């Protein structure tokens, strides 16, 4: 058992050491044990690699990777690092290639990440060249396992990772399939730079307790009353979750008024409510489903706003949040327009999500002098099980359960 | 006839309205039915239509301001816009198409000034009864990255 440098005061998941959000050693260990460990990391949408040779560059944790479609429509992924001197192999965010060539010394890689060419391998006019013992097969960037699930491409550096459906568990799979049930198309991409450790944002995604308290827009328009029908599903490992709700306009929610909470303002009405106009997306009546996959993937349905979010650490106190807005390929022009307007709700300027870009920074700054103290994660008890109500932090505790099992696993 | 001085004056007044926190007056720079969208260079290049802000009426712009005054939570900050000279692309039937560069510095209440965004306004102006109004303004940010959040308009 490897000792963690940060001291957890007990096995309980209700107290989280603040130092986990600011400790460099922890961040380094996370790269080894989580991102290059037995996890599946979202790389891109399958639709973003339409033809052989199409590639995208992204990251698993801080490690740059290339994901590319080869002939035969197989998707491969490998570290974006030339095996010669370590330079990036692909510089663009996306493109189309026959082979990859490192710009530094023109070493060549095929679309499966195999080293296939070394410039001047035999030397020039009998001079120089690689030693005869050098074998290209022994040199190449690290390759990833790739799984495509419901149009989502995941990669893993670990041979020990379970198959993707096993990793997700049956309940998460069902909820993922619910949204990714037919071909999608990308309708926009935006990146949000968050001034906080990646875990603070991932916890925020899983925290169904804050939604109607921090985001007034939700509450006022009855998109997310805690008394609505809905719940939280946490998978067996704790790392993945689904939070969902259904609109129940008949249900009066007195609990906000009783407590005099800031987030109830019944006088607030929109001048142009067409921003919220929508259509029935699915037959089950669920209007909100937030799904997360450990360690950094989110699939979002908020009414008709569909998006995937990729959470990437950028140093200890910075995070990059990549939003990919999607619709379905068979959307009518009217449905397409509904999505464009409703997207005002989400993203870096979203009526109900902009606050999430800032609260992580409030915590990061707030805990600057509190290395020996802990966050309290006790809403809804101590457990990590699924829950009918949404006034709970069960999925946040679930995250820490999964986090600890990766970070404290024997190697 | 819409002349360059009128356009420059319009833009100076537009950014002054935002930068001086007179945000309630900001929607009045647009026609009643209008397009206002904030996107980035890569989405425009790839013809991806969504924005982080997307409005197709002046009322939606008024709602944006109402939301930031009454609903949204963010740290107090303001902008300083610097706008370039409009480049007029076309002018016919009282409708003028122009593009104008902008730079926005964000000043946090804590005293930190940072370059928040640079980009280009892609504009469609109309002269309505002698008054210049935007029927379309697409703010195309040069960078794909927005720091923390965007709540005040560009």
> Helix segment count of chain B?
3
**Helix-strand pattern of chain A:** EHEEEEEEEEEEHHEHHHEEHEEEEHHEH
Strand order of the largest sheet of chain A: 12-18-17-16-15-14-13
Along the chain, the helix and strand elements of chain B come as HEHEHEEEEEE
What does the overall shape of chain A look like? Answer: globular
Assembly of the depicted chains: heterodimer
- Report the sheet with the most strands of chain A, covering strand number, pairing sense and barrel closure: 7 strands, antiparallel
Calculate the mean pLDDT score of chain B and round it: 96
Protein model, in words:
The complex is a heterodimer of chains A (411) and B (154). With 411 residues, chain A is α+β, with helices and mostly antiparallel strands. Chain A has ten helices and 19 strands. In chain A, the strands form five sheets. Chain A has a seven-stranded antiparallel sheet, sandwiched between helices. Chain A has a four-stranded antiparallel sheet with strand order 5-4-3-6, with no helix packed on it. A three-stranded antiparallel sheet of chain A has the order 2-11-10, with no helix packed on it. The radius of gyration of chain A is 23 Å and the shape is globular. The termini of chain A are close together. The mean pLDDT of chain A is 91. Chain B has 154 residues and is of the alpha+beta class. In chain B, strand 4 and strand 5 form a beta hairpin. Chain B contains three helices and eight strands; from the N terminus they run H-E-H-E-H-E-E-E-E-E-E. In chain B, strands 1, 2, 3, 4, 5, 6 and 7 form a seven-stranded mixed sheet that branches. The A-B interface holds A 93, 186-195, 214, 216-217, 220, 265, 268, 270-272, 274-275, 320, 325, 336, 339-341, 343-344, 347-351, 354-355, 357-358, 361 and B 38-40, 42-43, 48-57, 59-60, 62-63, 66-67, 70-75, 144-151.
């Amino acid at each position: 058992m490897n000792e963690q440098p940060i001291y957890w005061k007990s096995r309980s998941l209700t107290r989280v050491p603040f130092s986990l959000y600011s400790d460099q050693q922890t961040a380094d260990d996370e790269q080894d044990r989580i991102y290059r460990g037995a996890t599946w990391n979202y790389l891109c949408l399958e639709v973003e690699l339409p033809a052989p040779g199409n590639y995208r560059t992204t990251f698993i944790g801080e490690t740059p990777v290339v994901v590319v479609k080869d002939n035969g429509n197989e998707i491969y992924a490998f570290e974006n690092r030339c095996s010669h001197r370590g330079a990036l192999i692909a510089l663009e965010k996306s493109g189309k290639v026959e082979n990859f060539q490192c710009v530094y010394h023109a070493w060549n890689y095929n679309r499966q990440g195999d080293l296939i060419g070394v410039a001047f391998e035999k030397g020039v006019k009998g001079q120089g060249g690689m030693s005869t013992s050098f074998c290209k097969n022994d040199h190449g960037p690290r390759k990833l396992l790739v799984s495509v699930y419901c149009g989502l491409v995941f990669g893993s550096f670990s041979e020990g990772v379970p198959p993707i459906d096993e990793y997700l568990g049956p309940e998460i799979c069902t909820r993922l399939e619910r949204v990714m049930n037919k071909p999608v198309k990308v309708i926009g991409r935006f990146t949000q730079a968050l001034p906080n450790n990646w875990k603070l944002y991932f916890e925020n995604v899983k925290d169904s307790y804050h939604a109607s308290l921090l985001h007034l827009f939700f509450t006022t328009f009855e998109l997310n009353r805690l008394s609505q029908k809905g719940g939280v599903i946490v998978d067996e490992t704790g790392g993945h979750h689904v939070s969902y709700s259904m609109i129940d306009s008949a249900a009066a929610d007195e609990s906000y008024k009783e407590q005099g909470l800031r987030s109830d303002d019944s006088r607030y009405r929109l001048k142009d409510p067409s921003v919220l106009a929508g259509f029935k997306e699915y037959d089950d009546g669920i209007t909100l489903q937030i799904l997360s996959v450990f360690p950094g993937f989110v699939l979002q349905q908020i009414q008709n706003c569909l998006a995937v979010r990729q959470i990437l650490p950028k140093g200890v106190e910075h995070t990059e949040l990549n939003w990919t807005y999607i619709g379905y390929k068979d959307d009518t022009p009217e449905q397409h327009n509904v999505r464009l307007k409703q997207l005002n709700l989400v993203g870096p300027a979203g009526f109900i999500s902009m606050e999430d870009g800032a609260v992580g920074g409030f915590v990061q700054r707030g805990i600057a002098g509190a290395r020996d103290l802990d966050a309290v994660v006790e809403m809804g008890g101590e457990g990590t099980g699924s829950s009918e109500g949404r006034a709970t932090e069960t999925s946040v505790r679930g995250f820490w359960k999964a986090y600890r099992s990766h970070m404290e696993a024997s190697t | 006839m819409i002349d360059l001085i009128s356009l420059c004056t319009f833009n100076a007044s537009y950014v002054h309205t935002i930068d001086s926190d007179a945000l309630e007056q900001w929607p009045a720079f647009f026609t009643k039915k209008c397009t206002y969208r904030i996107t980035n260079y890569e989405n425009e290049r790839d013809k991806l239509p969504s924005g982080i802000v997307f409005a197709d009426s002046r009322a939606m712009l008024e709602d944006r301001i109402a939301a930031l005054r009454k609903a949204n939570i963010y740290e107090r900050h303001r902008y300083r816009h610097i706008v370039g000279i409009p480049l007029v692309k076309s002018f016919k039937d009282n409708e003028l198409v122009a593009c104008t560069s902008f730079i926005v510095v964000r000043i946090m209440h804590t005293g930190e000034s940072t370059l928040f965004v640079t980009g280009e306004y892609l504009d469609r102006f109309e002269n309505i009864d002698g008054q210049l109004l935007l029927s379309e303004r697409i703010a195309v940010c040069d960078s794909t990255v927005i720091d923390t959040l965007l709540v005040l308009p560009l």
